[in-house]
Amino acid sequence: MSFPFKAQFITVILCFALFSVCFGQPLIKYSNAVERQFNKIESDIVTTAEAMPEDKFYFTPEDLHIKNSNFKGVRTFAGQIMHLATDNILIWSAITGDSVRNDIQDVNGPISIRTKAAVLKYLKSSFEEGRKAISMLTDKNAMDMIEFRGRRLPKLDLAFYALTHANEHYGQMVVYLRMCGIIPPPTISER
After folding, report:
1. CATH number (domain holding residue 33)
2. Apex CA 177: angle with CA 171 and CA 178, to 5°?
3. What's the pLDDT tens digit per position in 159-181?
4. Containing structural domain, residue 145
């Protein structure tokens, strides 16, 4: 980039920033930016969870007895979903200020939820909490500090953590599906 172009670029950015400050319009609406990522992650996770047949919902790679592997104690497919949904609820509720269900005792969720239908309902409710939290995120409060697991974090930081955490579990869910011979639905549309 030549110097005159850099100066023009910086001038344009500063003009937009000044316009934003003077007229009260944010340059970036945080909720829109976060929501785009959220919608993709939610779709990938829900369709992947729905793709696992009920008779394999409690599958774990340990069931395959792969020589020289060590999958002892890893979460089942349903356990992955329950953990993800529970952390969603805990994270997004920290942003909204909502109280969480009193049957959540740890990050693995309520032990009373056992069937595929109930697990999927719980998962979807966790994304509803996320959608609510995202709708509350503004340029004015995105950097407000909140308590979460003994730390003080900006709301925006916590929102990105929720998205990253969800994506990590989506990756694990994909591997579990493929170990069961199932092509994850999101990857079919990417071909």
Report:
1. 1.20.120.450
2. 90
3. 999 999 999 999 999 999 999 99
4. 28-188
